[in-house]
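Let us work through a complete example step by step.
Step 1: write down the sequence.
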Amino acid sequence: MNDTSTLRTKAREPQLLGQTVVVIGGSAGIGLATAQRARDEGADVILTGRDPERLRQAAHEVDALNTAAFDATDPTLLAGFIRDLPSPIDHVMVTAGRPPYGRVLETELEDVRRALDEHLLLVVQIAREAGPKVRPGGTVLFMSGTGARRPGIGVGLLSTVTAALPALVANLALELAPVRVNVIAAGFVNTPLSASLLGDDLEKRRNELRETLPIRRVVEPADVGALAVHIMINTALTAGTYDIDGGQQVVAAAS
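Step 2: predict the structure and record it as tokens.
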């Protein structure tokens, strides 16, 4: 086999060519990394985000087909965005929302309701309203985490939604079939959100993970974006929860 035929054998078509990927919460971090990876695979991308300026920058980076600046946790604004989406679309990825930390018994009931709304009812709304616009075999993909799977002071609400989401997604996969529904559960990811949550402790946490994780580095947004796009491409994947934490759970269990 000569060099020309070797190159021809290795070449492949982009695997999302001609498809449309909607990333709700796509102006930074995991959402933006997913949009970049999807664009590399030939997809057109539609991005949403809260911050108009950051969204404009993200849209420029990935040559987005369209954008919409709004708070995805507002059900009215979210419904309007979904209603105006072109149909059909191929994949919807949802990364919007912040983890609800704090002692359950010290959290105002209104804040408890808001947390459940933003992390569970938001999933139901997107599945109900966006699901019918996704072509058969396409994906609705949500984000969760691995860090709150064990009970702890200050993570009661987060543990609750972490435990509930895989069950909810599995059932939605049955109801929306043949549209596929999945969830990615991440550990620490080196994102602007992590930086805002940890503040001055960010670098300490990074160094700790570099020393203790089996992969000897922190998980980056591009790692999660690669997994998200793989789930979009692999049409055998549905009703699943896919962990990506660099071995963080193994280290925690061993300690």
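Step 3: interpret the result. DSSP finds ten helices and seven strands in the chain.
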